[in-house]
């Protein structure tokens, strides 16, 4: 059996989702399915293991759409609502498996999980109706189901957050700068998923021009821009991007050899 690592874009949209409630712009009215964007999230699959990156408010719809029947771990990038507020939908998975789901993220992010969703950890009156989660703060590379997961420090406005690298794939959403030390950890990528919010500059996200520059610096074989706003029209703007750089869309997936995804053998 070949060792593969699969990634699926569960959501390619910015925090509002696209269409935006109440908006009549051409992208929000578009019939191109690639212009319909749920909130930002991705799924990594290795063997029988499903690793979810973030729990968007659209997690339930994403899980039904992609037929995700189990979640074996969650990696959180940061605690903003568009990346976390689907956390309650994890209960379907933990109830089904009968096991707690391991959840990884920075100390700061997991502190916010505990504070913002205290009912999950403190409300023992209805234990059957809450997700069962075990929180594991991480700062350095760690092993998960035989994969080496590398947290990649990013700057999101003034907030330090994590992207994640696993073997040939890096997922870097919500960033306005990438520290030099993080760039060092992003060499030899097959696939880079990168924040590219819109065309106008933004305080806390790369715009498309910045994302193109960063993508070319990192030099992955292909780059998918995600966290897209309704300024970005897939059929119109996608073909204008430089070679190897594409607009992500919901449901997009790629299977790669899991080359370099295994932890170094301990001696
Ligand atoms: Zn719109
Ligand atoms: Zn954010
Ligand atoms: Zn976001």
Walk me through the structure:
It is a single chain. The protein is an alpha/beta fold. The protein has 8 helices and 14 strands. The chain has helices spanning 59-65, 81-84, 90-97, 107-116, 118-122, 180-183, 208-218, 234-237, and strands at residues 4-11, 41-46, 49-53, 73-75, 101-105, 133-137, 142-144, 147-156, 159-166, 169-172, 191-195, 222-226, 245-247, 253-257. The chain has a 7-stranded mixed β-sheet. Strand 7 and strand 8 form a beta hairpin. The chain is globular. The mean pLDDT is 95. It binds zinc ion (3 copies). The site of one zinc ion has 6 residues, from loops.
Give the arrangement of secondary structure elements.
Layout: E1 4-11, E2 41-46, E3 49-53, H1 59-65, E4 73-75, H2 81-84, H3 90-97, E5 101-105, H4 107-116, H5 118-122, E6 133-137, E7 142-144, E8 147-156, E9 159-166, E10 169-172, H6 180-183, E11 191-195, H7 208-218, E12 222-226, H8 234-237, E13 245-247, E14 253-257
Parallel strand pairs: 3-4, 4-5, 5-6, 10-11, 11-12, 12-13
Antiparallel strand pairs: 1-2, 1-14, 2-3, 7-8, 8-9, 9-10
Bound molecules: zinc ion (3 copies).
Care to count the β-strands?
A: 14
* Order of H and E elements: EEEHEHHEHHEEEEEHEHEHEE
Shape: globular
User: What ranges have pLDDT less than 50 throughout 5 or more consecutive residues?
Assistant: none
Amino-to-carboxy terminus distance: 26 Å
Sheet of most strands? 7 strands, mixed
Q: Calculate the mean pLDDT score and round it.
A: 95
**Which class of secondary structure composition applies to the elements?**
alpha/beta
Helix content: 10-25%
Strand order in space, largest sheet: 6-5-4-3-2-1-14
Bound ligands, each once: zinc ion
Radius of gyration: 18 Å
The proportion of strand residues reads 25-35%
Number of helices: 8
């Amino acid at each position: 059996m070949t060792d593969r690592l699969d990634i699926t874009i569960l959501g390619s949209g910015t925090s509002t989702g696209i269409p935006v409630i109440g908006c009549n712009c051409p992208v929000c009215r578009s019939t191109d399915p690639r212009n319909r964007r749920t909130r930002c999230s991705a799924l990594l699959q290795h063997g029988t293991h499903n690793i979810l990156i973030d729990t968007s408010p659209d997690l339930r719809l994403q899980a039904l759409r992609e037929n995700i029947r189990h979640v074996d771990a969650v990696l959180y990038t940061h605690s903003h609502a568009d990346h976390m507020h689907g956390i309650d939908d994890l209960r379907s998975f933990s109830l089904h498996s009968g096991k707690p789901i391991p959840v990884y993220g920075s100390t700061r992010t997991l502190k916010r999980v505990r504070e913002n969703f205290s009912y999950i950890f403190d409300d023992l009156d209805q234990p059957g109706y809450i997700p069962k989660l075990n929180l594991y703060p991480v700062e350095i590379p760690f092993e998960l189901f035989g994969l080496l997961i590398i947290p990649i420090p990013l700057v999101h406005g003034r907030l330090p957050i994590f992207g994640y690298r696993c073997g040939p794939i890096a997922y870097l959403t919500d960033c306005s700068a990438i520290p030099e030390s993080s760039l060092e950890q992003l060499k030899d990528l097959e696939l880079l998923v990168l924040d590219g919010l819109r065309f106008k500059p933004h305080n806390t996200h790369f715009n498309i021009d910045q994302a193109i520059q960063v993508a070319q610096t990192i030099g992955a074989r292909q780059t998918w821009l995600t966290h897209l706003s309704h300024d970005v029209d897939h059929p119109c703007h996608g073909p204008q991007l430089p070679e190897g750089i594409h607009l992500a869309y919901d449901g997009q997936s790629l299977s790669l050899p899991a080359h370099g995804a295994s932890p170094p053998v301990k001696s």
